[in-house]
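Collaborator request, handled under Task 6.
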Amino acid sequence: MEAEHADAGGERGARPALSTGRRFGGLLLAWALLFAALPGVVTPDGPWGLAVLGIGVFGAVALRPAPAGRARRAFLAAWLANAIGTGATMAWIWYVVPFGLLYIGFGMGFYVTLGAVAARRIARRFAPGVALAVAWAGFEVARTVLPPPFGLGWFLVGFHAHATPWLVGGARVFGVEGLGFVLAALGGVVAELLLDRRVRRSTALLSAGSLAARVLAGTLVPAPETIPGPRVLLVQPSVPQEVKQSTDFVAAERRAASQTLDALADQPRDEPVDLVCWGESMLAEWLVEPGVEAALAAGAEVPEWWGDGFEGRVAYWRASEERFFRRGLLRRFPDGVSFLTGAVVLDSAGDRLVRRNGVVLFDPAGERGESASKRFLVPGAETALGFERFAWARKLAWRAMGYVPDFSRGERTGVLHLATRDGRGFEVAALVCFDNAFPEAFREPLAAGRVDFHVVASNEAWYHDSFEMDQMLAFSRVVAASTGRSVVRATNSGVSCVIGPDGREIARLRVQGADRSVRGSLAALVPVPVDPLAHPPYVDLRDALRGGLLLLVALLLGLSRSVGRSLR
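Structure tokens returned to the collaborator:
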């Protein structure tokens, strides 16, 4: 059996072993609570108290030892339960790549299971609640350190606090990782109550202190002072994914253009629009970057699955951009209106051609500036991790999705320049869909220079009306607060909205009460900081906070007994 240290008081006790079946069932109960706490499952925002309870139940189960000689069986049972639980948090991926749930569940579940092993080891020397909080928060960070497919930063527990203003303000100093530590520490209190019907002094101090620190940080470090920025018009055409992947998409693109012109015509004269925003990959044709024709003439490699006669298609796409934008849609815009849209962008990279999931900005004259590219690609849906070079992998992809996932990722978050009719200029950090889940995609351009606000171009029609959209909103609220910048979400099918730099929602597109799978438009002013170079402390502290948490896990593990003994 596993010996436990109660607290600094030195009381030692033996905690009874837990059978494999009860461990499996207990962990499933914990994940059921965590699942119910997700935004969009029980309530739109999600009751974060259920997340604390779920972590507590998880700890009460995970901190119990396995029966003698059953350590390996207990580990595998826990891994399976954690795989089911973590997979459920992304159950909507079933609509795109059903087999991806295996990778997601067992991959994320492995990190959670290792975290439980670490918590049991740490609990040999420190209070169980402290061990649970440190291990849970530390291994969440660990799974975000490596990019997909080796890690996955989707929905850290701190995102549960997204709709709690008095708590989310602490993200300006501690970020989502710090919010997660608070919830894990509160879960440690619950775990100790379930295990021993009492709370150790160190656990109480840790939970109360970390909660107070986040609340105090949100008070002492307010959201930045803002002024009215550009007025944006978000156009949500709600094109079904089946249409986007068919020849009918050309007609859908034209309908979106007409919808945009109608929405512009309906705007009050005293509230002119500065920027029209479309969602992710909303153009039927690819946009061609400068230098592609020269690369082709020099013999650049073209992927064989792109088909023959590629030079002709490049010429067609060039002509299509001129016809649709400069001589078509944009000529009919009111004076001074720019246009931002997601698009597939064809580019050259060394001696080969690549395509990127990008965002482009056309100025009022119809001239296209530099494009931004999606940084975090969805494994299996946007990248085949090099396997697209094998015929069998391409065949499998065609059967599953109707295309080959061969996009190239952007190395950094692109910042686009927006000039408005009143002579002002704004720097816009442009992100695409899945990027929304990764705080570093928002933080890094702000740490490097000026960013006035963020725009996320997204297409979530893949996921119908699922709670994936509610999770996306949670991400956007927390990163808005932690970076002190507004987030504009321009989507194909929902949810399109503007979130202020304090994490509060300013405006959301709704049609007869519905915010997803609906067609409509939304005009809203975007607040921008008075000082465009100032930013919250988290922007500079994030790496230190994450590194410190990982170091704390390593330190407590080093002070405790071996992992092998902690499994007994």
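The cover message to the collaborator said: "The two ends are 6 Å apart (CA to CA). The chain has two domains: 2-221+541-566, 226-375+410-535. Please let us know whether this matches your experimental observations."
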